[in-house]
């Protein structure tokens, strides 16, 4: 249901499967996906994003207006995704997400280069616009991505630093839903307050 709803806003959908995929599972994906890429189950969603982009290559990706990076932790939709894409299409940004993931004043994993976990657009759903996707900074980021071997690596070497690093380079981002009023209750409103 989620992929079918998402497909309404996409020209092309690539499903990247980490690990084994039965023929029945592949058949189900192929009812909505343009392509299905099965890869070794390593590197979490970060490496699936990386290999998905490498599957097309930078030249082919530059032909698109934006790319959507989405992992398996989403469900729904509980609201039409087409409306979200239309609304966000009106905003002049380089990348965007649904809601903010609020950080911590410390780094519980002792791996983040900032010594704390910054507020960030969650990597579970992120849209990258052409201007940023075609930039040397974005390509360099993915071409030099360090190996991801754990959940903590995924957070500290990618998710928690992506937003702050690219914002510092002048790239603008925004969020579909302002959840500042929920920050006092939970650091990740999308997880516990989706409605």
Shape, per Cα inertia axes: globular
Q: Care to count the β-strands?
A: 6
Strand order in the largest sheet: 3-5-4-6
What helical percentage do the residues reach?
Answer: 25-40%
End-to-end distance, in Å? 18 Å
**Rg from C-alpha positions?**
16 Å
Strand content: 5-15%
- Poorly predicted runs are none
Structural class: alpha/beta
Oligomeric state of this protein: single chain
Q: What's the average pLDDT?
A: 94
Write down the secondary-structure element order: HEHEHHEHEEHHHEH
Summarize the main sheet: 4 strands, mixed
Query: What is the overall number of helices?
Result: 9
Describe the structure.
This protein is an alpha/beta fold. The chain has helices at residues 2-7, 23-30, 44-56, 58-61, 81-89, 130-133, 136-143, 151-168, 189-192; strands at residues 14-18, 35-39, 66-70, 95-97, 125-129, 173-175. The strands form two sheets. The chain has a four-stranded mixed sheet. Strands 1-2 form a two-stranded parallel sheet.
């Amino acid at each position: 249901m989620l992929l079918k709803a998402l497909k309404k806003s996409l020209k092309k959908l690539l499903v990247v499967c980490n690990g084994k995929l039965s023929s029945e599972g592949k058949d189900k994906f192929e009812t909505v996906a343009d392509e299905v890429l099965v890869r070794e189950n390593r590197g979490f969603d970060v490496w699936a994003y990386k290999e998905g982009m490498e599957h097309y290559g930078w030249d082919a990706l530059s032909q698109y207006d934006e790319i959507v990076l989405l992992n398996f932790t989403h469900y729904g939709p509980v609201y039409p995704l087409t409306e979200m894409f239309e609304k966000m299409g009106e905003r002049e940004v380089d990348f965007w997400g649904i809601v903010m993931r609020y950080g911590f004043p410390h780094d519980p994993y002792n791996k983040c280069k900032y010594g704390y976990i910054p507020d960030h657009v969650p990597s579970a759903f992120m849209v990258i616009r052409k201007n940023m996707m075609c930039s040397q900074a974005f390509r360099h980021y993915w071409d030099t991505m360090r190996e991801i071997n754990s959940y903590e690596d995924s957070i500290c070497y990618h998710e928690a630093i992506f937003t702050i690093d690219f914002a510092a380079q002048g790239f603008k981002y925004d969020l579909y839903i302002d959840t500042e009023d929920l920050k006092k209750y939970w650091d990740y409103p999308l997880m516990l307050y989706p409605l």
